[in-house]
């Protein structure tokens, strides 16, 4: 009787793990060109925040801010995120530093970063899912994203 119960429990646990497994599609044409510290288009101000007047939707005056999060050192290299907000809404998230020491780093970045950016835009905060197979990059991305949002007061 005990063996039967253990077998059923083991089978259920195995099925749960199997069904929760997510595979990654091969990196396709949507390659991310962001690599290394030189990837930022322009340096951020020393406090990590910049403000520029913008035009909100419907002709009302909006305020656009670009804030750079802290650099997070991960096992494979630094990760840093820059966030653009318009009237407090996240309109753009861009990785300005990513691990880039080897081709595998680039492969992981090309796969994971677009997903992390989309998650952040959808969630409008840093409470996003990590990408399987890119755990360290995901953790660094989320920490830097939260840092940028903290600096922006969001």
Number of helices: 3
Give start-end ranges of low-pLDDT stretches.
24-60
Mean pLDDT: 78
Gross morphology is elongated
Note the run of SSEs as H and E: HEEEEEHH
Helix/strand/pairing category:
alpha+beta
Q: Helix proportion of residues, in percent?
A: 25-40%
**Rg, nearest Å:** 20 Å
How would you explain this protein's 3D organization?
The longest helix is centred in the C-terminal third of the chain and has 21 residues, at 103-123. The chain is elongated. It has 3 helices and 5 strands, in the order αβββββαα. Strands 1, 2, 3, 4 and 5 form a 5-stranded antiparallel β-sheet that branches. The chain starts with a helix and ends with a helix. Helices cover 38% and strands 24% of the residues.
Main attributes of the structure:
5-stranded antiparallel β-sheet, single chain, 154 residues, 24% strand, alpha+beta
Please give the structural blueprint.
Blueprint lengths: L1 H19 L28 E7 L5 E8 L3 E3 L2 E10 L2 E9 L5 H21 L11 H18 L2
Antiparallel strand pairs: 1-2, 2-4, 3-4, 4-5
Helix pairs in contact: 2-3
Task: Describe what is shown at a glance.
The protein contains 3 helices and 5 strands; from the N terminus they run αβββββαα.
